[in-house]
């Protein structure tokens, strides 16, 4: 669902290589990889936005909640540690992962070939399609191809921004789904792209909003958890993959999905 741009990728790669070099010498001395260090600390630090309902957001009591929050807690429990959540803007999450500030990002991250050049990933824990959202009375945009020469609003450096640009749209960068929707409703942009399930969640809370889905991507995106690339994080990915398989098998993932989306997006 989200994607980093070329410049940020270059910066991220350089930062990642620096971190890996530093970690290599340190780990060689201690003999502990990332999973061992997490277990020793008794916590796994998880980065997310905290502004993207129903994935990760604050409820009326200002508690951090959402699908990814509960998935993160369930995975941490399987690892035998506590989950510590750190919130930040989307384009800063990967920088924090590169610098070692976070162990993981759990924030509806799509697997992409470009990201795979810099990061390693767990197996998918959810599957979603991208929706092209337009005003309810719009009849000019019925496909992604119709975005050519149009304007959209999307999170900075997200998958949605990149996809819109690939189809020829001019994209205004914003920080949240609510902002993108407000720009569409105000007529400041022609459309926006986002997760199908996130749009339906928005409409459930705003049933009178004059919006519609013009079209959907045919194939579902794989939602994964990125980690720093390399052997230092290999056992951590293996442990998370094992946790995901167990949480899928015992129905935990499906139950969390039903709670926040009203459907099971964890089964392919």
What does it look like?
The chain has 268 residues and is an alpha/beta fold. The chain folds into two domains: 162 residues, 3-Layer(aba) Sandwich (D-Maltodextrin-Binding Protein, domain 2), CATH 3.40.190; 87 residues, D-Maltodextrin-Binding Protein, domain 2. The protein is 42% helix and 22% strand. The strands form six sheets. A three-stranded parallel sheet has the order 4-1-5. A three-stranded antiparallel sheet has the order 6-14-8, with no helix packed on it. Strands 12-9-13 form a three-stranded antiparallel sheet. Helix 6 links the parallel strand 10 and strand 11. It is globular and about 60 Å long. The two termini are 16 Å apart.
- How much of the residues is beta strand, in percent? 15-25%
* Tally of separate domains: 2
Q: Main β-sheet: number of strands, strand sense, barrel status?
A: 3 strands, parallel
Helix run count:
10
Spatial separation of the terminal alpha carbons: 16 Å
SSE order, one letter for each helix or strand? HHEEEHEHEEHEEEEHEHEHEEEHH
Task: Briefly say what this structure is.
This protein has helices at 6-30, 34-41, 67-79, 90-99, 113-116, 159-166, 177-185, 196-205, 234-249, 252-261, and strands at residues 43-48, 57-58, 64-65, 82-87, 104-105, 109-110, 119-121, 126-128, 130-135, 151-155, 170-174, 192-195, 211-216, 221-224, 226-228. The protein is an alpha/beta fold and 268 residues long.
Q: Which terms would index this structure?
A:
alpha/beta, D-Maltodextrin-Binding Protein, domain 2, three-stranded parallel beta sheet, three-stranded antiparallel beta sheet, 10 helices, 42% helix, globular
